[in-house]
Amino acid sequence: MPLLTSLLILIVVARLFGQLFQRFSQPAIIGEMFAGVILGPSVLNLVRVDAALSGISEFAVFLIVLSAGLEMNFKDIVDSLRSKGVVIAVLGFVIPLAAGIIVGTAFHLDGMRTVFLGLCISITALPVAVSILQSFNQLDSDIARYSVATAIFNDVMALLALGIILNLPEQQSLHAVGLSIINVSWKLIALGAFILGFNWTLQKIIDKGVHIERLSEKLVDLLGNEALFGILLLFVLLFGSVSAALGFQSIIGAFFGALLIDRKFFLASRYDELDLTLRSITGGFLAPVFFAYLGLEFNVSIIESFWFVAVVLAVSVGSKILAGWLGSRLIRLPQTMSLGIGIILNGRGVMELVIASIAYRHNFIDQNLFSVLILMGVVTTIITPFMFRKWVMPKL
Asked: Which domains occur in the chain, in start order?
């Protein structure tokens, strides 16, 4: 089927299902993911995943993250990871990782498949988390700040581990593994230094009395209204490119780039125009494609053991909720907020699929485990908004 035809069917069906679920007071993203499952190989097999659709989905992730970053504050995220917030972040990664390794060991998986099962269970997808929070109008809440900070920490740790594994030499001596860890670690430090250094430089410029909003207005007068959106994209792409050049996912850098763009950089009317433009593109077109694409990735016919699937799903959901809830309670957050953080951390989506696909392409896991990991990513992402609406929203 031609790309444009596939894209048209995907958008129309995803939007219809999204609207249908909204009529029943559920987030549209659930319906959009169900649309992908129905159109994909598990039911109708009408739309197939290919390189072109994958590219459009990646661009959708980029704009979703950009939109979310504009609505959040860099200082709030950094503050959430300081002192008490780091407890949630560490437990949110370690407990699910350990749970996944225990499951892999219990089912007699080899060492590499066990490690990747643990990594995929430990992930929280940043784009999915911010989209769910956005759909409930909770992006400016404490739940969002702690959840997003933890998601960033989880994804960075998982990507750090992936980088170490991919850089392991054939002769896996202790010395060689140590060098691999050092190589990936300095790249992570370099990325952090670039982001923090850029933020420090911006703050110094503002402290010296430079009115950045006047510079942006001059650019608009010189190049037109459209130029501001283009400059915004270039700014964020710079951070994404640095992140990718260092071996990490570009959306991590893009998110931090968007976080650094403060409202005071623009006149209020310009900022609202940028926000409206991004919302129109993402909400009306690209976000439905992204979430429907997640549903397309699922193929039920390949799965061999549904007992194994059931255990993986139960452990992945239970360990994430437990980790988020326990970490939040240890720093004395309220019960409802603690549960909300644990539930939001459950959405794995694109990041888990990225890790799983890389592992599959490098023959670290087989097709059966790959399908199980896809199912886990789709199911945990679908049920997260349901649980958040049922158990958290009525008490906020």
From this structure: 3-395 (1.20.1530.20)
